[in-house]
Amino acid sequence: MLMELFLTFAKIGMFTFGGGYAMISLIENICVENKKWITHDEMMTVTVIAESTPGPIAINCATYVGYKRAKLPGAIFATLGVIIPSFVIIFAISKFLNHFLEIAWVANAFKGIKIAVGILIVDVAIKMLKKMKKKPMQIIMVCFAIAAMLLINIFALNISSMVLMLASAVIGIVVFSINNMRREHMKK
After folding, report:
1. Verdict on whether the full-model pTM lies above 0.70
2. What is the DSSP code string of 87-99?
3. For labeling, which of 16, 27, 52, 65 is most exposed (least CB within 10 Å)?
4. What is the average pLDDT value for the chain, to the nearest integer?
């Protein structure tokens, strides 16, 4: 199991460009759909938790899946699996190719990769939206978040992602606390 965790996450780490958000789609495909190591709901939960904890999201997801499968040794092997390929590739590039991005075919390849990364990130967002429970308040919050994101990008506002995360957390706590109070009040 430990070697399988290491090799699975090494493959994810080696063949995914664009960072953690792009890796989420591949992690879900392999760990949820193919290997059935975790459920879709667990993947959504771990994605939210991984985003709100320190460290890269893909590493946090790998650590969770590894821990779920084989406790602490599994977490270590999965984490090393996702880290080592990227580290080796970046180290080799920095060591041996001083002007790596100045090579025309490399620069052009990365232009194409940027498009694929964007598609992977949108794919993850669509999958998470499809799996979300379709309650009115959650739909309103998703619409509000999309509208806020569009306005921030259209007007090129420089708002820290930390501020957005904290604001979202506060709104979530307030809205869902109010809903819980209503439910408790209706039960009485």
Report:
1. no
2. HHHHHHHHHH-TT
3. 52
4. 85
